[in-house]
Structures are given as structure tokens and as C-alpha cells.
Amino acid sequence: MASVIHFRDVVAVLGGFPALAGVDLDVDAGELVALAGPNGAGKTTVLRVCAGLVPVVSGTAEVLGFNLTSQGRQVRSRVGLLGPSGGLYEDLTVADNLRFFGRASGVDDVDTTAAARRFGLTGRLSTTRVAQLSTGQRRRVALAALVARRAELWLLDEPHAGLDAAGRDLLDEVIVGACAAGATVVLASHELDRTEALRCRHVNLAGGTTGGATGPSQARDPDGERDPEGERGPESERGPDQERGPGVHGAA
Amino acid sequence: MLGVIVLAGTAVTLWLSFVATPADAVQGEAVRLLYVHVPSVTVAYVACGITFVASGMWLWKRTEWWDLVGSSAAEIASVFTAVTLLSGMVWGQATWGTAWEWDPRLTSTLFLFLLLVGYQALRAASPDRSSRARRSAVVGLLLVPNIVIVNRSVQWWRSLHQDATLFRTDLDFRIEGLMLFTWVFATAVGLVLLAWLLMHRFRIGWLANRVEERRLGDALTARRAEATS
Amino acid sequence: MLRDAVLVAGKDLRLEVRTRVGLGQVLPFAVLVLVLFGFALDPDRGILDAATPGLFWVTVLFSAVLAVQRAFAVESAEGVRDALRLTSLAPGGVFLGKAAAIAVQLLVLEVALGVGVVVLYGADPAGWALLVGTAVPATAGIAAAGSLYGVLAVGLRVRETLVPLLLLPVLAPVLLASTRAFEAALDGSPADGWPWAGLLALFAVVYLGCGIGLYGTLLEES
């Protein structure tokens, strides 16, 4: 199985503070991994390092076969990051935002529309400014943008926060669908019930490290079983379905 | 070693400019200021050139070394630009009777000073080392095109307004013998001084980076301890 | 790259259409500056008349600083910087798009200010070819330099104060050249003004080139 994330003793610094103080992490293609740990443990930073947004100060970090120290930029267009604030232009409408970020990531407008429809962002909502949306609605917009870009690696920061019950179920469906279609998903979450229901592999972070002396394999949550191999399509065996995007059609 | 040369050179320059050389027929004693003014402007421009080259090299090689060379040279350049401006103004007061004249060279030196202040401010405002190096390299690289454009446009502007100028742009006295020697000598001393300052500023910057790294190392240990506690 | 530029410029102009910050705030600010110059220089003594081209361009410069600040405040919003860096937009395209959107807004502002100086200062426009031939490269240069120095300060806590300090000394030659060219046009001696317009075109080309070349470096940073 191809390795999607390979971290060894990764250190990352944010404004002089060592947010990551030696993280070991291995994620294979098609895996569903949940990062757990208290606030300030470095979960968000791990995701941003994976996206090539935070430079690696020391250690080895490879994502999707790219060395982050030297080729961080190549990774960016191939991952999807759902941040806590969504990353949307407040004064543009939902449709404008989706169209801009879609086109800027080389996504066809048709796929953007399909993703928007899937998250219920049609009609009046699509012509509403993002500034007027609730937290949950913003999250839906950000998710639609993420789904449309058909990333190979999904990085979700507290994806369930702010969503209503229907939204959470839809999100879980999308995540499972993305995995089934061959994408890899890493999410940071405090909501263990949700991540356990998703049958995530759990990785614990504390103090910017993956569990001190224990290696990544020991750091797994004993309750979180790994998905049976059969449920995931290995990266090398992507079917034609993948061509149409894991997110938009994957869970259908 | 360089420090000793600078010290001796400065002493000789002082003797040459105050004792050995005569007062100028037109400018009187004020001419002695030019032995400070002209070398310091030369040093300032050389230092700017170093910043320009180092910024370009940083963008290519991305090493700490070039970042430190560029920023050290820029800092020294701003000091010498300030000296140039001040000595120029005092000289102007003595010779023309007015401290500020919209002379093309003086005006573009003022702009050079402002550009260097901006460079310094940008460095001070950038929180971490890599972003500081990146941003200041871009500004450093634009320093020379900027100063060339400013210089050309100001020169052109003043030459169109001959009536506004109180004096001819070329210096109104002859350079000969000992005066010329003093000038060249003072410039040479200035350049050695630049090298000496650059070395030491570089060393301070280098050590500051090491201190920062050690602090980061401590923070890393503390951060790791968080995990086990 | 051009496709990306169109996309980014379109997005910025759409933002302007939705928020009207340029039309509702920057433009009134510019008119206000014109009026304040009128107070300071006493319109009856003929100083305003002689100083009109200079005051016009000083006002444009100050407004340009505001427009640049606005253009990059939008991109500094939390999460937006990350989102933008995760797109596959060419850095040169982002630069050209930002610059184009700023330039369009400034051109509109210059037209309005032109009407303003005619009405308020009693200026008598002449030498149209030179006026346009000056305003276009000057605006391109201001927008290009503004986009380059504007992005330099993105993500810094002192962004608002740093941008004018970095940008205004750089734009000083533009002020000088465009003022001289406008003076020549209004005096009815356009031949004196065209070399200045040439200098402005050179400035614009230098900054457009530098921006396309250097934007990638500036965008890759965290």
C-alpha cells in the first residue's frame, strides 16, 4: 500500500513556538485517521504541515510522495484542507465563493454546482453573502468547495463542529465515500463518538508529539479498529469512479 | 586587525583633512566636511550594492549567510546615508546659506534613506526568520532599481528647472594634489570601516540566530515535557 | 497565467461591486483631500491653479495606498490565505489580477478626481492625448508596485502602517513624472511631457516584471 503521509520526528515552528516537537506519523493511501489530543497538542499544525502551509524545520516529512522540505508547493494543489474558519471571502455570495475557489483549483463549474447541490447550497442560500451565514452554513460551503476539488488527501480540522445532525451525517457519508473512492482522510477531532463511528484509526497527540516514547503504532486508540482492507480502494487501483471525483459521487 | 587599520586610518584622515590640507578659496573651512561627506556616500552606495547582491543571492541560494550579509549591509548603509545627509546639510548651511537644497543628489539620498528605513521596519515587523529573510530579500533586490529610478527622475526634474537651482550641480572647486589624496584615502578608510562593521554586524546577527535556536531548543524540550506530564 | 489573472481580477472587482468600499469610501476620501487642499492653499491666490497637477497626483497616491490596503486586507482574512495558497493559481497570475483590479479602480477614481479638479480648482483640461498617455502608465505602475509591496506586508501585525512606509518612497518618481507630464499638458506644451510619460511606462514595465518574477517567492510563505 502506498504511503501518503510519512513523518519522522517532524518539528514545525509557528512564530518562535515549537507547535510540533517531533511527530511520527504514517498514513497509507485510502486510510481514515483521526488525530486526537487536548487543545494545543498540535493537531491543526499537523494538518497544515501536511498541506504544505507550514514549513518543516527538521525531520523527514513526505506527503503524496513529495518531500515537504523542498517540494511543499507541489502538495498544495493536491490536498484539501477544511480549516476552522472556512477560508471564504465574507463579502462574496456562496455561489461566487464556490465558483472562484473551484476555478482557481481547476475544477469544472459543473462539479462545483453538483457539490453545492449535495450540501443544500441552492436557491436563496447560494446568493447569500458568506458574512450572513451561520457557522454551520459556512462549514457546508467550505465542505462543498473541498468536495469539488477532488483532493487526494483530505485534511479536516474539527469537521463536525457547528454542523447540525443532518449535516454531521452527510459529512460522515462524504468522508466514507471519499475513502471508498481512494482518497485518504486525516481529521482532527475532539468528538470521539463520531470518529469511532467512522471506524477511524486514532493517533494521539500531546505536547506537539505523538505520544512521547511510544511509536505511532502503539499510539493507536485500542478501540478504534482499522477498516478492513477490502473497503478501501488502493491508490494504484482507482476505478473510473475516481475520475468523477471521490466526493461528489463516491458515496452514491 | 581590521579594527586597528580603521583606527589608524581614521587618525590619519583626521590629520589630513584638518591640518595638512588647506582651506578652499571659495568654500573656506567647510571644504573639510567633504572629506566625510563624499566617502560616506560612497560607502553607503557600496553597502546598498552589497545588500542588492546578497538579496539576489538569497533568493537563489536561500541560505542564512546571504540573509545576514544583506541585512547587515543595509543597516550600515542607512547609518552612512544618515551621515551623508547630515554632513551635506551642514556643508550646505555653510556654503549656500541653506541647509536643504533640492539638489538631485541630496534629494535622492534622502529617498535612499527612506527606502532603507522601510527595509529596516519590514525586518523588525516580520516574526519568524524565514519570512523575514524572504520579505527583506525582495525589498533588498528592489532597492537598486528603486534608487536608480528615483535618481534619474530627480536629476531630470532638477535639470528642467535650472532657475530654481542656486548653484551648479558639479562641485565648484578644483581638486588637486593633497586634497585629492585625502579624498581617496578617506574613501579607502571608509571602505575598510565598512568591511569591519559588516563583519561584526554579521557576527552579531549570526549569534542572535544561534541564541534564537537555543531558545527554540529549550522550548522544544519544554514542549516535549508537556506530552509526558 | 492570464486566465488566472482574469479570475483573480474578476473576483476582486466583484468584491468591490458587492461592498462598494472603493466607491463609497476611497473616492469620497479623495474628494475630501481635494477640498482640504483648497482650504490649505486658499483658492483665491492662484497657488491652487499652479499646483493642480501635483495635488491631483498626491491625492491619487494617497487613495492608491488605501486601495492597496483594502485589496490585501481581503486576502489576509483568517483562512483565506490558506485557501488561496492551496489553489493551483499561478503566482504571476495572482499578481497581475490583483494589480489589474487595483488599476481599474484607480482609473475610475482618476476620472472622478479629474472632474473634481475642473469643478473645484477651475482647471482647464488640455492636451488630452498626453493626459491619458500619462494616467494609464502611471496607474499601471502604481498598481503593480502597490500589489508587490502590499503582499509583502500581508500577515504582519503592523500591515496598515508598514504599507505606506514601503510604498510611498517607491512611488515618488511616479508622482514626479506624472505631475510634470500633466503640467506640460495643461501648459499646452505636450512635447515636454512625453518623456515623462515614457519614464512612467518604464516604471510600470519594471514593476510588472518584478511582480511576476517575485510573487511566487512571496506567496509560498506561511
Report on the architecture of this protein.
The complex is a heterotrimer of chains A (252), B (229) and C (222). Chain A has nine helices and nine strands. With 252 residues, chain A is α/β, with parallel strands linked by helices. Chain A has a five-stranded parallel β-sheet with strand order 6-7-8-3-9, sandwiched between helices. In chain A, helix 3 (94-104) crosses helix 4 (109-118), helix 3 packs parallel to helix 5 and helix 4 packs antiparallel against helix 5 (135-148). With 229 residues, chain B is mainly α. Chain B is 81% helix and 0% strand. Chain C contains eight helices and no strands. Chain C is mainly α and 222 residues long. In chain C, helix 3 runs antiparallel to helix 5. Chain C starts with a helix and ends with a helix. Chains in contact: A-B, A-C, B-C. At the B-C interface, helix 4 and helix 5 of B face helix 7 and helix 8 of C.
Give the strand content of chain C. Answer: under 5%
User: Quaternary status of these chains?
Assistant: heterotrimer
Overall pLDDT metric of chain C: 91
Q: In terms of structural class, how would the helical and strand content of chain A be classed?
A: alpha/beta
Q: What level of helicity do the residues of chain C show? A: over 70%
Record keyword descriptors for this entry.
heterotrimer, A: 252 residues, alpha/beta, 9 helices, 9 strands, 33% helix, disordered C terminus, B: 229 residues, mainly alpha
